[in-house]
Specification:
Helix content: 25-40%
Number of domains: 1
Order of helices and strands: EEHEEHHH
Distance between the termini: 43 Å
Number of strands: 4
CATH superfamily: RRM (RNA recognition motif) domain
Strand content: 35-45%
Largest sheet: 4 strands, antiparallel
Strand order of the largest sheet: 1-2-4-3
Shape: globular
């Protein structure tokens, strides 16, 4: 997977850095976890929240948007809960709890 940063903007009001970038990859679209790990490997420090990864039709490429906060607490104070869940647990806990609720009915 290769990341090509299109724009970086420091948002001082919300104490974060906003990054728009393109992903070039082979196979399936990379998960948020893999994208966060790649961004950390590029030297980004802090708590990274991947907002979206949108694959481009007919290409092994995707547009993506991430925000880098100084701490997880700051991110939790600003970001909606569902975005935090997608980035921290990958949404697995929520899916598992829904299937368990469905079995009990």
């Amino acid at each position: 997977m290769e990341i090509e940063i299109e724009s970086r903007k420091e948002n001082k009001l919300l104490e974060r850095e906003e990054i728009h970038f393109r992903l070039k990859y082979e196979g399936a679209t990379p998960s948020r976890k893999k994208v966060r790990e790649q961004l950390k490997g590029m030297g980004m420090k802090g708590f990274i929240v991947v907002d979206y990864v949108k694959p481009l039709f007919g290409a092994r490429e995707a547009k993506a948007y991430a925000k880098v906060y100084p701490s997880e607490q700051k991110a939790r104070a600003i970001e909606p809960d569902y975005i935090i869940k997608r980035n921290v647990s990958g949404g697995k806990e929520e899916k598992e709890s829904k299937t368990k609720e469905g079995e009990n009915e």
